[in-house]
Amino acid sequence: MQRLAMRAAGVRASATMGPRQANEHCSFQPRLHLAAARLPQRRGRQLRIQTAIRAQYSKSEKGDSSTTDYRIFIQDKGGKNVSAWHDIPLWAEDGLLNFICEIPKESSAKMEVATDEEGTPIKQDIKKGKLRFYPYNINWNYGLLPQTWEDPNHHNSDVDAAGDNDPVDVVEIGGQTGVMGAVYKVKPLGVLAMIDDGELDWKIIAIDVNDPKASSVNDIEDVEREFPGEVDKIRTWFRDYKTPDGKPQNKFGYNDKAMNKEFTLGVIKETSGFYQNLLSGKTENTKGLALK
């Protein structure tokens, strides 16, 4: 993807736990203050960054989490529902990204932002009329980058596939279990070009800026040093998770390689542009997406 990498130059540089259980792991603000008291002083600035972003947003839940009616709405400081996809900015300060956690690590409920519902709340995916679960837990916090879109009209010649019509996915590799519906600031580190059923489905590898190892990882090669074998685990998990249902393995472009940060920033810039074109009407909304 040589063209995309060139455009990137100069760009700003889970089956044991259901959704309700995952949500109860923590509430945003009180525990955040407790955590802040225990962390070393040198990480004070990172904590202030995360405290600020979490203080901006809370969430409300509607319906029973064991039913198809269950929804999580993100709310602003005034208690107004905001769209996880449209109203939360992609970029934060210092080259960080806003990441919305849909699926906390070590859980299996297949939660996702409902891009076809007004307000784009988080809901559990449905398959054949039933709530969908992964065949086993996902081992990382998983979610999306707001204000991005993988355009199904754009054919990527490097991987011979077009976008999957969704926001860009994030695999957050930090040690803490995320909260479903919470917004985190993360550092982008690398990206895998997954091909799922013939569609391009980027997987951004990132780390919570508040993680103890965040200061030690700035690019994909740092991940192998600080998290040995982690990239291969991510690739293997996403390659195989559909096979228990009798489906073929997913594939990856670029010879299965996790691309570096510069390349990743190019992917983010490109998919942010696709999103802006969709929102402005430059790209026709032919898939019934909710744009507010």
Describe the structure concisely for a colleague.
With 292 residues, the protein is of the alpha+beta class. It contains 7 helices and 17 strands. It is 25% helix and 26% strand.
Describe this protein's structure.
The chain has 292 residues and is of the alpha+beta class. 25% of the residues lie in helices and 26% in strands. It has seven helices and 17 strands. A hairpin with a 2-residue loop joins strand 8 and strand 9. The chain is globular, with a radius of gyration of 18 Å.
What labels describe this entry?
292 residues; alpha+beta; 3-stranded antiparallel beta sheet; 25% helix; globular; disordered N terminus
Order of helices and strands: HHHHEEEEEEEEEEEEEEEEHHEH
Structural class estimated from helices and strands: alpha+beta
In helices, the fraction of residues equals 25-40%
Q: How large is the count of helical segments?
A: 7
Shape from CA axes? globular
The CA-CA distance between the termini, in Å, is 32 Å
Overall residue-averaged pLDDT value: 87
Strand content: 25-35%
Uncertain segments? 2-42
Query: Care to count the β-strands?
Result: 17
Radius of gyration, taken over Cα atoms and rounded to an integer in Å: 18 Å
Task: Write out the strand line-up for the largest beta sheet, numbering strands in chain order.
Answer: 4-11-14-16-15
Largest sheet: 5 strands, mixed, barrel
Which helices and strands occur, and which strands form pairs?
Blueprint: H1 2-8, H2 19-23, H3 28-38, H4 44-56, E1 58-62, E2 71-75, E3 81-82, E4 97-103, E5 107-109, E6 111-113, E7 122-124, E8 126-127, E9 130-131, E10 133-138, E11 141-144, E12 155-156, E13 161-163, E14 169-172, E15 183-196, E16 199-208, H5 220-226, H6 230-240, E17 251-252, H7 261-280
Parallel strand pairs: 13-16, 14-16
Antiparallel strand pairs: 1-2, 2-3, 4-11, 4-15, 5-10, 6-7, 8-9, 11-14, 12-13, 15-16, 15-17
